[in-house]
Amino acid sequence: MGLDMYLTGDKYFHENPAIDEGYQVKSHRLRLGQWRKHPNLHGYIVENFAEGEDECQEIQLEDTDIRQILQAIKDNALPFTEGFFFGESDGSEKQEDIEIFTKALEWLLNPSIRR
Q1: What gap in Å lies between CA 4 and CA 37, rounded to an integer?
Q2: Could you report how far apart the first and last alpha carbons of the chain are, in Å?
Q3: Cα separation of 62 and 64, whole Å?
Q4: How many CB atoms lie within 10 A of CB 49?
Q5: Kindly report the CA angle at 88 between 85 and 46, in degrees rounded to 5?
Q6: If you count Cβ atoms within 10 Å of the first and of the last residue's Cβ in the chain, which end, N or C, has fewer?
Q7: 54, 34 in Cβ contact below 8 A?
C-alpha cells in the first residue's frame, strides 16, 4: 500500500519496427521516472491535469504540462497534500524531481533520443 506514481513515455515504431518473438512491435512503454510517497507532487498533478479527480487513472501530460510542473517544483509551489497511505513530501525530492522532468522533457522534444 502506498502512493506510487510513474512517469512513462510511449515510444512508437512507425518505420523499421522492432521485432519481438517474430512479431513487429508497435510501441514500447518506457518508465521515465517514478516516485513513492510524494503526495505534494501527486496533488499538484491531480489538481492541474486531472480536474481534481484522483481515480488512479493515467494522466496525459504534454510538453507544456511538464514545463509547468518543472516550474512549480523550482518555485516550491507544490501544494501540501495528504491522504490515507500517502506518506509525506519532505522537500528532499526537489533535485530528483527536477532531473526526472528535465530528462523527460528532453526525451519528449528530441525525436533522435527516442530512436
Answers
A1: 6
A2: 36
A3: 5
A4: 15
A5: 75
A6: N
A7: no
Q: How many CA atoms lie within 13 A of 37 on its CB side?
A: 10
Cα Rg of the chain, angstroms: 16
Question: What is the C-alpha separation between 115 and 29, in angstroms, rounded?
Answer: 13
Count, residues in the chain: 115
Q: What is the largest CA-CA distance in the chain?
A: 49
- For residue 12, what are the CA distances in angstroms to 22, 62, 69, 97? 18, 16, 25, 25
The answer, as to whether pTM is greater than 0.85, is yes
Instruction: Give the three-state DSSP class for 114.
Output: coil
Q: How far apart are CA 8 and CA 5, in angstroms?
A: 10
pLDDT in tens, 53-82: 988 899 999 999 999 999 999 999 999 998
Buried/exposed code over 91-103 (b: 16+ C-beta within 10 A; e: otherwise)? eebeeebeebbee
Task: DSSP letter for 103, please.
Answer: H
Residue 31, all three cell numbers: 518508465
